[in-house]
Amino acid sequence: MFKLPDLPYGYDALQPTISSETMRLHHDKHHAKYVETVNTLCSKEQLTPDSLESLILEARSSRQTKLFNNAAQAWNHAFFWSCMTPDAHPLDGELAAQIAQAFGDVKGFKDKFVQEGEGHFGSGWVWLLATKEGLVVRSTHDGENPLGQDGATPLIACDLWEHAYYVDYRNDRKAYLGAWFDKVADWRFAADQLAAAKGGEVWRYPAPAGGPALRRQA
Known about the structure:
mainly alpha, Helix Hairpins, minor pseudopilin epsh fold, three-stranded antiparallel beta sheet, 3 strands, disordered C terminus
């Protein structure tokens, strides 16, 4: 059985960028429902995955759409919580150097990230990914994520579903993305992911009950 990970900070820790009302609704209702549905489907199909990552890859390859959507969304949300911090630090170090190489400078990166997220039609996610060709910004629809896709490693992601921002920003997704980028994005986490992409242990979802301990939880 997979568990709903606790938030790594208080419900009100990201205010005013993201309200406690949004965090409670988002984590306790939306994320919790995805995890509950994954466990229900696994029980029904008598599946005993050793990780959420392996379940996502198997569900995608076998075209088990409902299982994939819920498992991927459970993963995406846990990753998203780790992508934010109430103690934001500026981009620096190797991550900043690679961003400059890929996008010109931090402003160019922000412009690309916000533009990609704002222009994404419908629900989904916007990601900064480390690929063989360098850093890229991409968006994915609905619950899709980069796991198992061309060796890409997600460094940071922002939720584009309306439940992530509508209470606080109504339909102004651009304002939400800009504030998120400037105020709560955890660039230290992204830097850790970048370092891990070169041969370390990248972020993983907490193991199911009885599974191996993992390095970092959301």
